[in-house]
Amino acid sequence: MMTKDVKQQGAARCEAENFQELLDLETVDVPPSLRIDSNPDVGDEDVPISNYIAREMHEKEKARLWPRVWQMVCREEDILNAGDYTVYDCGDDSVIVMRGKTGQINGFINSCLHRGRTLLANSGCVKRIRCPYHGFRWDIDGGFAGMPCQWDFQHADEQDWCLPKVALDCWGGFVFINIDGQAGPLADYLGVLPDHFQHYHLENAFKGVHVQKVIACNWKVAHEAFLESYHSVATHPQILPFTADANTQVDTFCDHIARMITPMEVASPHLGSVSQEDIARHSLESSGRMAESSAENIELPEGMSAREYIGELNRAAFSEASGEDLSSATLSELQDAILYDVFPNMQVWAGYFGNIVYQFRPNGDDHESCVFDVRLLLRARPEQGPIAGVPVHRLADDEPFANAEELGVLGSVFDQDMGNLPYMMKGLKASKKGTVTLASYQESRIRHLHNTLARYLES
């Protein structure tokens, strides 16, 4: 029988060595952002299952959530040249994000001002925007450029035919849009994020991997699979020898920003004793995020921990790749899973290695499926100049992430997650309980998501 813990919400922690104690072992200065341990009370109330499965919730989100928040659309290197564009669809909204003639990036409503047909799809490069239906034309800055039989539209004022724009801003090389233009400045929306990422220079990174797949579940079900490490013991047992899942630190900073930090190269508290050599070997072979993937003939110097060994491997490799002096980087920033959540649907890893970016959104008007994007940001030396982002690799609905070879072993990890999600939807629909019950600490980022969502939908 379960008994209610009388501790203050958020106070319960695993008794094993926590993240802050690992920071005490660092031999360089630790950034103040990592020394924050902030988990304010977000409540213990159950979350209604209707939040995931009800059509009414989806309609509310279309009206009161998606138009009002800042949404990440793409990376700046995805649209390097004049006329480069990408189309971002979310629910009923469709926006063209395009590089203009002078290099400025604009966001246009993707709807012809004549009869309403969408103008562009997917991504590409054009010299002008032309409606495929009747041939109405705009330049790449959104200015009206003419129509067939213009004599038949003397009742229309050309000044009213420029493509309507949405609010657009950039941070860290990411391009964000706000559809209703009322969200306030992006910098305010992102809260502590720009300060916490100031040393990682994501604006100088480039998108080296981009895999996309439609998942048969509500977007929140998929998003929440990456908001906690609690599922690792059952879903990802192969990572436990080098992942301190139950030692994860969870932080919430404001309505739009939360974080979790999972120590790496530290064995899970769910396991018994694991040697430092075994921790390092499993990490190199199975993590998919370290500088090397081979553990052949691995031998740790006497007295060196796996955390130190892997950290120094990464320091050398990441310094070489970026041309940056990383001698003052902490072991944490060179290997730990430092994952920030940007409400409502973006997650980005901090640190100096390949930064993974997750994104989730409704699949058109279907509230029982979603679009899941995985991007991996890589570093280049300054002399290489701007590097264009790779094209999107779209997987078929029944195709596993393991088929995306560019993901390495991460593909099989994502497939383990995907193995849960359709069954989550089935189980939620079958439930007679009517709610889901979350852990007070380890799943507090999920509760934070629903609390912020409620404030948008109720306002």
Outline of this structure?
The chain has 459 residues and is an alpha+beta fold. The chain has helices spanning 19-23, 50-53, 55-64, 186-189, 193-196, 219-224, 232-235, 276-286, 306-322, 331-335, 410-418, 421-430, 444-458; strands at 47-48, 71-75, 84-90, 93-99, 105-109, 123-125, 129-130, 137-138, 144-146, 167-171, 174-178, 206-215, 249-254, 257-262, 337-342, 346-349, 355-363, 366-378, 393-394, 435-436.
Flag low-confidence runs: 1-10
CA-atom Rg in angstroms: 23 Å
What's the overall average pLDDT, rounded?
A: 93
Largest sheet: 8 strands, mixed
Termini Cα gap: 39 Å
Determine the strand fraction and express it as a percent band: 15-25%
Helix content: 10-25%
Q: How does the SSE layout of this entry go?
A:
Elements: H1 19-23, E1 47-48, H2 50-53, H3 55-64, E2 71-75, E3 84-90, E4 93-99, E5 105-109, E6 123-125, E7 129-130, E8 137-138, E9 144-146, E10 167-171, E11 174-178, H4 186-189, H5 193-196, E12 206-215, H6 219-224, H7 232-235, E13 249-254, E14 257-262, H8 276-286, H9 306-322, H10 331-335, E15 337-342, E16 346-349, E17 355-363, E18 366-378, E19 393-394, H11 410-418, H12 421-430, E20 435-436, H13 444-458
Parallel strand pairs: 12-19
Antiparallel strand pairs: 1-20, 2-11, 3-4, 3-6, 4-5, 7-8, 8-9, 10-11, 12-18, 13-14, 14-15, 15-16, 16-17, 17-18
